[in-house]
Write a structure and sequence with these properties.
Blueprint: H1 7-42, H2 44-80, H3 84-110, H4 113-118, H5 123-136, H6 140-155, H7 159-182, H8 192-217, H9 232-266, H10 268-305, H11 308-335, H12 337-342, H13 352-385, H14 390-414, H15 418-443
Length: 454
């Protein structure tokens, strides 16, 4: 049993663990933002094609990323139990599953054109998107492996290196994009293909860096010695946890993707305002996501030590920290809506006044869903730390698909509230997930850990 920690001690520990993770998520967010800005300046059709291709790629990557996220709580629990053999086993089988998954979905990336056409896309945009995916798709293998190894390192509380590798990747991505998209510094002007090559280069450099660190600094885990030997018991343990985590991620992403389709039905300007508001909300969500990762690691540690007092105090501390971030974001979104939106809109754009007006209303709704979005992702992090994923997957799926999407359609179109109504549906879906998942954690999952707190 570990020494009882005070709430301030928990907050400090979560901050030390979580701040580099938050920085890493913001750096990853910056990679996508850089691609969007550079391609937008190069050619609008190129941006449309890569946006379409990126959405397709991201869906496949997210599901496969469930195996990487499954490794995080398993390694954290094994580390608390001082079981280095299980650390190696779970990480290695996470790598196996990620590589096998990449092999299974690579044909979808290689032959993506008929799939994109089936979704009623413009043939020229679909053709360019499919050409991009034939190159960028190879980056899926290093990207999934990097996700497993980052989870392994984060679970061992080596979050600083996770941050610096992601920051380095963001810089490399920006420089390579600048050279290959536009033909700068003597490089050929490749446009969309340049962005695809930059993506693969970035993922490969990240892979080399993270493998070098893991082998050099943590040789005791021997991750890659006799890598080819199967470990079927651990393989199925990681599979059992990773699949529901991947499906939960897909369910949430599909909620936001469907909201974008609905905003497109309303009109081009509301869709543009939606994209801006969602970018701003996504940036602040990275803070909650980093805290959620920290919650997963510390809950996994508590599970390994069977220390319910540590788990409960830590859960209260991380939920409180998320709440403080939400309150600060709410104040920012409500008081600085116009300056924030103006960053994304040219001053001489004739549609600027309309975008600002619609965007300000959506940011008010984004302020409202900060509370519930933060709460639901913290709950998911805590539950993953306890390796509780199946029931939370069902709860999240019901919240996003049975509550969120129908509510968005009802308020947006049947009640005639347009964009505000669509976003109100998002709020209700996320609120349902927050209530169900927090209830699951506090009334059931926490009881599986050791003795009750005093």
């Amino acid at each position: 049993m570990s020494k009882v920690m005070t709430y301030p001690a928990h907050v400090r520990a979560i901050a030390v663990l979580g701040l580099p993770l938050i920085g890493g998520h913001l750096a990853q967010f910056a990679i996508g933002l850089t691609d969007t800005i550079m391609l937008g300046r190069y050619d609008v059709e190129a941006l449309a094609a890569v946006t379409l291709a990126g959405s397709f790629y991201f869906v496949l990557f997210l599901f496969g990323g469930g195996f990487g996220l499954a490794v995080m709580p398993m390694v954290a629990t094994s580390a608390a139990e001082e079981d280095e053999t299980s650390i190696r086993r779970s990480t290695r089988m996470g790598l196996w599953l990620s590589l096998l998954y990449g092999m299974l979905v690579m044909p979808l990336l290689w032959w993506s054109y008929p799939i994109l056409i089936a979704t009623d896309q413009d043939p020229q945009v679909a053709q360019t998107a499919s050409e991009y995916l034939r190159v960028a798709g190879w980056g899926l293998f290093p990207a999934l492996v990097v996700m497993v190894l980052k989870s392994y390192l984060a679970a061992l509380e080596r979050t600083q290196i996770v941050l610096w590798i992601t920051v380095a990747a963001a810089v490399i991505n920006g420089l390579t994009n600048y050279a290959l998209i536009f033909g700068n510094w003597g490089a050929p002007e490749l446009g969309v293909m340049g962005a695809a090559i930059a993506s693969v280069v970035t993922q490969t450099v990240s892979l080399v860096a993270v493998i070098f660190y893991a082998v050099k600094v943590l040789p005791e885990h021997s991750l890659f010695q006799r890598f080819w030997r199967p470990d079927w018991e651990m393989f199925f343990s990681v599979l059992k946890l990773g699949v529901p985590i991947g499906l939960t991620l897909l369910a949430e992403v599909s909620l936001f993707a469907t909201s974008a389709f609905m905003m497109g039905w309303i009109g081009q300007v509301p869709l543009a305002a939606h994209g801006i508001a969602l970018n701003l909300a996504s940036a602040t969500f990275m803070v909650h996501l980093g805290l959620s990762n920290a919650a997963t690691i510390r809950a996994g540690n508590a599970l390994g030590r069977k220390d319910r007092a540590h788990l409960e105090k830590g859960a209260i501390a991380v939920t409180g920290m998320s709440l403080v971030v939400s309150v600060m974001t709410i104040i920012l979104f409500l008081t600085c809506a116009e300056p924030l939106i103006s960053v994304f809109v040219e001053s001489d754009d004739p549609q600027r006044p309309q975008i600002l007006a619609i965007g300000a209303g959506l940011l008010a709704m984004a302020a409202l869903f900060q509370l519930v979005d933060g709460a639901q992702v913290i709950a998911l992090g805590l539950l993953r730390g306890l390796q509780d994923a199946k029931v939370p997957m069902v709860m999240a799926g019901l919240s996003y698909w049975v509550v969120g999407i129908p509510a968005s359609y009802y308020f947006g179109f049947i009640r005639g509230m347009d964009g505000i109504g669509v976003w109100l549906g998002l709020v209700l879906g996320l609120a349902s997930a927050a209530v169900l998942l927090m209830t699951r954690f506090w009334t059931r999952s926490v009881k599986a850990v050791g003795v009750p707190a005093e």
